[in-house]
Amino acid sequence: EGVQPQEYTLIKMKVNPPFTGKLAALEGKNVYLAAATLRPETMYGQTNAWVLPDGDYGAFEINDDDVFVITKRAAMNLAFQGGSKVPGKPNCLLELKGKDLIGVALSSPLSVNPVIYALPMLTILTDKGTGIVTSVPSDAPDDYAALMDLKNKPALREKLGVEDKWVLPFEVVPIINIPEFGDMSAVKVCQDLKIKSQNDKDKLAEAKRLTYLKGFLEGTMLVGEHKGTKVQDAKPLLRKMLVANGQAVMYSE
Ligand code: A2H
Questions:
Q1: Which end of the chain has the least Cβ crowding within 10 Å, N or C?
Q2: Which CATH number goes with the domain that contains 35?
Q3: Beta bridge pairs of residue 222
């Protein structure tokens, strides 16, 4: 972890009923996969959520209404930031593996896709954020590479227990223009660098380096209520709106 605290927005991706498998124990509760993002203004382009299949997660009581599925480590941090009934003491209702979450249907704030699914990503770190990542393949090279892995490799879908209908209907959504990279910067940079999979670590780091700062400084919103405004202006407004509407909470570590 860095020296400076990182401020994330936790996006509340609501689990849609019916609750099946292990999640059945949570039936009747407001359960969310809480995804840590630095880019709340990109939420229009969500196509899925990412979980680590072998990762350890829990369903934690955040307050009287909400249950968040996150890592234990994140629940502990959140419990010191107002995200628990008893300060500093997270209450785990149910332990889960990432595998238990694959295929769960979600409604996520701002997404142009009304229903998206939790899918496996093998490069998720369990010591960063919540261990849940929301996927915006238009603007995040990691997300684009991992989505293409699942779309283009039926054997990988089979191995990871991913059904076609959770992946194949979802197209990359143009949401931000960056003059140098067009309307889907992650797609362009992944293609330019010939990134072949989510495991192309060095190339993905380079892709992120190329797009990240430019997106913030030179990006313009193509969609939503701040269409036409700069990313750097839209970002704080959308973050504030999501938090005020109860669709997100702030989290730092
Ligand atoms: B970002 P930083 Cl559109 N493991 O959100 C791996 N990656 C994780 C993670 C974890 N445990 N937790 C969060 N992340 C991702 C959106 C996005 C992000 C866009 C573009 C770039 C981007 C949609 N995915 O991040 O190391 C999340 O993906 C580029 C770095 O703390 C989060 O923001 O800087 C970002 O990494 C946080 O990474």
A1: N
A2: 3.90.740.10
A3: none
Probe ligand 1: pick from 133, 136, 175, 199, max atoms within 8 Å of CB? 133
* pLDDT at position 213: 86
Please report the ipTM that was assigned to this predicted complex. 0.99
Q: Is a pLDDT exceeding 60 seen at residue 98? A: yes
Is residue 108 predicted with pLDDT exceeding 70?
Answer: yes
Average pLDDT in the 177-187 region?
A: 97
Ligand 1 neighbours (beta carbon < 6 A): 6, 36-39, 42, 124-125, 128-129, 131, 133-136, 139-140, 143, 208, 212
Among 114, 112, 110, 108, which Cα is nearest to 50's? Answer: 108
Domain count, the chain: 1
Q: How far, in Å, from the CA of 142 to the mean position of ligand 1?
A: 8
148: in domain: yes
2 in a structural domain: no
Does 138 reside within a domain?
yes
3-class DSSP state of 57: strand
3-state secondary structure of 157: helix
